[in-house]
Write a structure and sequence with these properties.
3 domains; 573 residues; Enzyme I, Chain A, domain 2
């Protein structure tokens, strides 16, 4: 029997199934007498403290040996300590007379649903963290221990409806050959952990729990998204050979992690990393990249119940600047708004948030927010090679207005005797088609630009990139996308201004070769994509890349382009 799902972490695994069915607590609607509110809230605080101590102990046990797991649990502690959540639980107990269990259930579900509605896929997946903490609290209230995956005592393929962040935190890497779940996507915690550990994983496999029993032999082809249940001897033989070939190929790719990305005819390409924080885990791979092409600063705004002040931001930017030294770090200003909501920043509900007040538009609407961040970036700029970049720029007026604010803040700092880099580069994200069409005019207004291909594709193709039903229409290989990128690259080359690509297209090795062929010599991506991109760059000449770019610009369908690139790059590299 063969099942299919979404391949989120490549590889082939062959092992028996470990079917994971954790207890999921439920809280039914229940109310209290008014005079019982004090006792109910005291119970909440008691259980909150107990769960916090439990999480801290587990976190400390992982802090030295497994930072990925420790980071997950630290995020849970932050949620548990969130003042807004605790106050809402208290309000429901005291004002609506809910009992402790029901107040926890409804409050955490509310906040989880809010996170799940966000546009940003990474932030969206934090909903799982909120629900995980809810389950821990409910289990504590009910006196029921949480089930864990510590019971996996032999190499197995984990099969579950879903894996919560705390589930993945208990994984013993040595015992997990692969992961299969009925839910989840490429940005879920299960996917992130699987990729960081190099565990093959296929998620979103419908009815997997009905089809698989504990101990069943499974073949997991996480490159194709296939799960073979109870394979035949012939299938076992076939996939065993494929696994050996894949594992050898993976080792070859990994050997390029510390390679210098120079083409066969001597073109030096900058391969940079996208980051979301100044945490140790984010910065540990700094020696292997040429800088940071995208620092997503909105993550700083998600870490607490209050907006980060200037000092908090300054310390984060300073840490990253010092880590990378002379290598450039591009700090993107706040990209939030519309359906990217924050508890600490109330925003009006919008009918079409993708086209609403977000990113730079929000910063113009909240000038104090914008100026605080610019001050922090400028102050940190003396500690390294920082650059400042504005997202969701739609007009030339947007650029001029933003640069005016930067100059005003510079004047304030000068007047206060506060040092900063007077020559800090100021650039823009090119992700709205209007500014891409005006790339020649935009290039005259900025020091550099970076193409954000995720949103550029979304806006060009009129596709909600988070809607699974519309997924076939969201095409990185669409010829129109390549034509707009080429137009932008030509405009910035004529102006003598640097242009990079920092969206997911930069991390696709085949597309990376095309981007180089279009004259883009700086690519930024998730670190997991760095070795494969370096391998392609070092295996192709600039002339070959240019020819490849010319060839695909003459094609008219995404499928045609994808097939051509697959064949061409397999032959060259």
């Amino acid at each position: 029997m063969k099942l299919t799902g979404t391949a989120v972490s490549g590889g082939i695994a062959i092992a028996p199934a470990f079917v994971y069915r954790p207890f999921t607590p439920e809280a039914k609607e229940a109310y209290l007498e008014a005079d019982a509110a004090d006792a109910a809230f005291a119970a909440f605080e008691r259980h909150r403290s107990a769960v916090g101590a439990e999480l801290l102990a587990i976190c400390e046990s992982f802090s030295e040996c497994d930072s990925d797991k420790a980071d997950i649990l630290r995020a849970h502690i932050e949620i548990l300590d969130d003042i807004a959540i605790a106050e809402e639980v208290e309000r429901r107990i005291r004002s609506e007379h809910m009992d402790c269990l029901y107040a926890i259930e409804t409050t955490f579900t509310l906040f989880g649903d809010m996170m799940a509605s966000l546009d940003d896929p990474v932030l969206k997946e934090r909903a799982a963290d909120v629900m995980d903490v809810k389950y821990r609290l409910l289990c504590s209230c009910l006196g029921v221990p949480r089930a864990t995956l510590k019971d996996v005592r032999e190499p197995s393929i984990i099969c579950a409806h879903d894996l919560l962040p705390s589930d993945t935190a208990t994984l013993n890497r040595a015992m997990v050959a692969g992961i299969v779940t009925e839910t989840g996507g490429v940005t879920s915690h299960s996917a992130i952990i699987a990729r960081s550990y190099g565990i093959p994983a296929v998620l979103g496999v419908e009815h997997a729990m009905d089809a698989v029993s504990g101990g069943d032999m499974l073949i997991l082809d996480a490159s194709a998204g296939d799960v073979v249940v109870r394979p035949t001897p012939e299938e076992l033989t076939l996939y065993t050979g494929q696994k050996a070939t894949y594992d050898a190929h993976l080792e070859t790719i990994r050997s390029f992690t510390d390679a210098v990305p120079v083409s066969t005819d001597g073109e030096r390409i900058l391969v940079c990393q996208n980051i979301g924080s100044a945490d140790r885990e984010e910065l540990k791979n700094a020696p292997f990249v040429d800088g940071v092409g995208l620092f997503r600063t909105e993550f700083l705004y998600m870490q607490g119940s209050q907006l980060p002040d200037e000092e908090t931001q300054y310390r984060a930017y300073k840490t990253v600047a010092e880590t990378f030294g002379t290598r450039q770090v591009i700090v993107r200003t706040l990209d939030i708004g519309g359906d990217k909501t924050l508890d600490c920043l109330p925003l009006p509900k919008e009918d079409n948030p993708f086209l609403g007040i977000r990113a730079l538009r929000l910063c113009f609407a909240r000038p104090e927010l914008f100026r605080t961040q610019i001050r922090a970036i400028l102050r940190a700029s003396v500690y390294g090679s920082l650059a400042m970049m504005f997202p969701m720029v739609g007009t030339i007026d947007d650029i001029r207005r933003a640069r005016t604010v930067v100059e005003d803040v510079k004047s304030e700092l000068r007047a206060g005797g506060i040092p900063f880099n007077e020559q800090i580069p100021v650039g823009i994200m090119i992700e709205i088609p209007a500014i891409a069409i005006l790339a020649d005019a935009a290039a005259e207004e900025v020091d550099f630009a970076s193409i954000g291909t995720n949103d550029l594709c979304q806006y060009m193709l009129a596709v909600d990139r988070l809607n699974p039903e519309a997924a076939p229409y969201y095409q990185f290989y669409n010829p129109a996308v390549f034509h707009v990128i080429k137009h932008t690259a030509d405009a910035f080359k004529s102006a003598g201004k640097p242009l990079s690509v920092c969206g997911e297209m930069a991390g696709d090795p085949r597309i990376a070769a095309v981007l180089v062929g279009m004259g883009i010599h700086k690519l930024s991506m998730s670190f997991s994509s760095v070795p494969a991109v370096k391998r392609v760059i070092t295996g192709i000449s600039g002339k070959q890349a240019a020819t490849l770019a010319q060839e695909i610009l003459r094609m008219s369908t995404a499928s045609e382009i994808e097939a051509h690139l697959r064949a061409a790059l397999d032959a060259l590299c």
